[in-house]
Design brief:
- Helix content is 40%, strand content 18%.
- The protein has 342 residues and is an alpha/beta fold.
- The chain folds into two domains: 3-178 and 218-241, NAD(P)-binding Rossmann-like Domain (Rossmann fold, 3-Layer(aba) Sandwich); 187-215 and 247-296 and 318-341, UDP-galactose 4-epimerase, domain 1.
- The strands form four sheets. It has a seven-stranded parallel sheet, sandwiched between helices. It has a four-stranded mixed sheet with strand order 8-15-14-13.
- The longest helix is centred in the last third of the chain and has 23 residues, at 319-341.
- The relative contact order is 0.13.
- This is GDP-mannose 4,6-dehydratase.
- It holds the Pfam family GDP_Man_Dehyd.
- Residues 5-326 form the NAD(P)-binding domain.
């Protein structure tokens, strides 16, 4: 029976990965930051099956202690300040967690158990101002946010420890992956939550920024399988995990509304563009310039052929099903909210 240590276990990816590893018979340890009120987040339903360790990515002593307690055979570093918009507001905190935090974790592994296998959650945001389409493992990086820059450090320090200290260290360059467990600050969940509220008449409209940004969207449940597969290989390497399909934010919005029986008609241009409910003429989508990024990433499209060939990884949940799962979940949550307020 293997021991696995997951940082960021209460988040979207951490919860799906914990479920996967528990199904495979692992002893699962999860790192949590100490708070005045314990928040198990997305692992509330399996908290009794996980052994939690209080630690922090900015405190190497606590990470060394976590390695000693868990004696982890596999370490999955999913902890991050992962909201791109916040990284402009908190660039130093983002760097401490997403860059230096990775080094802290690698040093903890090297100090306590250098035979442990390490997974680093890299991101497609490292490609930023893309140098080729689609993006693959050999595509040059050009990050366009403090988040992307910090993650690029984490990516390269992982590669450096692999080559310098012969650690089994892999980076998964994951393109956008969403789910019903996504936080509401992320645009996909912001959309599905708003669509549910508009459908039930408790919100008038949805405000968004750049509607024409293109993203490669998959489901988190598929992507955590790729994380696990990377650490089961004979040699460590880096892999792009993506769908090789790109959709605009506008398409995501249209799909989400369509799934609740609302057809959108677009009117106007630029910041004056609005989305109108075709049936009753109500404005249900508006553009708000405050949601524009200081430096925009216009298109992300990943080529997962290496993961397909070497890992045998394939996604199972297509785009429409992803949106459908998120809409169904948010419709149920909003219904409960309405019921509880009566």
């Amino acid at each position: 029976m293997k021991n696995a240590l997951i940082t960021g276990i209460t988040g979207q990816d951490g919860s799906y990965l914990a479920e996967l590893l528990l199904e495979k018979g692992y002893n699962v340890y999860g790192i949590m930051r100490r708070k005045s009120v314990v928040d198990y987040g997305n692992v509330e339903h399996i908290k009794d099956k996980i052994q939690f360790i209080y630690a922090d990515m900015t405190d190497i002593i606590s990470l060394i202690n976590a390695m000693k307690i868990s004696q982890a055979d596999e370490v999955y570093n999913l902890a991050a300040q992962s909201f791109v918009a916040t990284s402009w507001e908190q660039p130093l905190a983002t760097a401490e967690i997403d860059a230096i935090g990775v080094t802290n974790m690698l040093e903890a592994i090297r100090t306590v158990k250098p035979t442990a296998r390490f997974y680093q959650a890299s991101t497609s945001e490292m490609f930023g101002l893309v140098q080729e389409i689609p993006q693959k493992e050999t595509t040059p990086f050009y990050p366009r946010s403090p988040y992307g820059v910090a993650k690029l450090y984490g990516h390269w320090i992982t590669k450096n420890y692999r080559e310098s200290f012969k650690l089994f260290a892999c980076s998964g360059i994951l393109f956008n992956h969403e789910s019903e467990r996504r936080g509401k600050e992320f645009v996909t969940r912001k959309i599905t939550d708003a669509v549910a509220r508009i459908k039930f008449g408790i919100q008038e409209y949805l405000e968004l920024g750049n509607m024409d940004s293109k993203r490669d969207w998959g489901h988190s449940k598929d992507y955590v399988k790729a994380m696990w597969l990377m650490l089961q290989q004979d040699t460590p390497d880096d892999y792009v995990i993506a769908t090789n399909e790109t959709r605009t934010v506008r398409e995501f919005v249209e799909t989400a509304f369509h799934l609740v029986g609302i057809t959108i008609k677009w009117q106007g241009d630029g910041v004056n563009e609005v989305g109108i409910n075709q049936e009753n003429g109500q404005i249900i989508v508006k553009i708000n310039p405050k949601f524009f990024r200081p430096a925009e990433v216009d298109i992300l499209l990943g080529d997962p052929s290496k993961a397909d060939e070497k890992l045998g990884w394939k996604r199972n949940i297509p785009f429409t099903e992803l949106v459908e799962r998120m809409i169904k979940s948010d419709m149920e949550l909003v219904q409960k909210e309405i019921k509880n307020t009566k």
